[in-house]
Description:
Elements: E1 4-7, H1 12-25, E2 30-34, E3 46-48, H2 54-63, E4 68-71, H3 77-82, H4 84-107, E5 113-115, E6 118-119, H5 143-162, E7 165-167, E8 169-171, E9 173-175, H6 188-197, E10 202-204, E11 212-216, H7 217-229, E12 241-242, E13 246-248, H8 250-260, E14 266-268, H9 273-278, H10 287-293, H11 301-311
Parallel strand pairs: 1-2, 1-4, 2-3, 4-5, 5-7, 6-8, 8-12, 9-11, 10-14
Antiparallel strand pairs: 11-13
Helix pairs in contact: 4-5, 6-8, 8-11
This protein binds nicotinamide-adenine-dinucleotide.
Nicotinamide-adenine-dinucleotide binds near residues 34, 50 and 76.
Amino acid sequence: MEKILVIGANGQIGSELVDALTVKHGVENVIAADIAPASLYGAANYVHVDVLDSARLAKVVDSYDVTQVYQLAALLSVTGEQAPLKAWTLNINGLLNILELARERGLAGKPLRLFWPSSIAAFGPHTPAVDTPQLAVMDPTTIYGISKQAGERLCDYYFSKYGIDVRSIRYPGIISYKSPPGGGTTDYAIAIFHAAKQAEPYTCFLGPETTLPMIYMPDAIRATIELMAAPAAQIRTRSAYNVSGLSFSPAQLAQAIKQLLPDFEMRYQPDDRQEIADSWPQSLDDTHARADWGWRADVGLAQLVKDMLENVRAA
Ligand code: NAD
């Protein structure tokens, strides 16, 4: 019986991951944790945890006999640029705290399986932009990307040196409607649906041809759960897996929305986020994830747009 702790459970991914894990493992076996005093999404078991407080973290893991930790708390690409030291401290020390906890628990005969997400932001301007391979030049330009690249190296190190069963995905931009996005460079692809639903024009902060890798939330959640369920021997990448969903530009997304809402109008006013987007891949080669644990995306652009327009709230 697994006991699962999700840190960052009030966030865009955490809020949906808690629901999916609850369906798979039972409500009594999933503990939602965040720095906020209460669950924003009605999680049945909620604990207040600051991932930077290692003593509190250890206490929660011990008291619930946790066997798996998903560590999602982070500052993202745009918010990270506004507070680089805070982003580095949270993103790196949060990860180190769970890696160290897993090392100590392993020595005590109570191993922890860990999930920690990397990002396409770990790549940089010298990375091959199209069909970016699993192993490529990585020269990230944001503090967020630098923390993700360093985090990948830490995961690989703790696996090689201490045998920690840590698993990771380089998430593309994640599109969803349940909770607001957390301050990333791909947030336009969510905000656009809110504008379209209110019959308002949308002014995009990226230029029309800025193609980026994206993934719809149900695919992202399924990838995460499938990776964590795979036998350890099959996980041959311990830094982070490329996982491909779909790739599109703002102009292509606007066109797909117009198919359903012909009056929708898109305007463009690129800002600082353009430079970040330009340093990221356009599409990913996920051969390793497919071969090692059978990954395959389900959702294409037309289905994503239809589903988002049906479900996004107008307000
Ligand atoms: P988010 O900003 O929506 O949520 C992060 C959550 O962490 C928030 O609920 C916040 O309250 C919580 N948190 C912040 N500081 C904390 C602390 N000290 N202790 C405990 N909780 C704390 O982020 P998200 O979009 O859900 O992203 C989750 C993870 O996935 C991050 O590591 C992010 O880098 C990664 N990721 C996300 C995307 C995406 O498109 N959303 C893409 C690539 C990678």
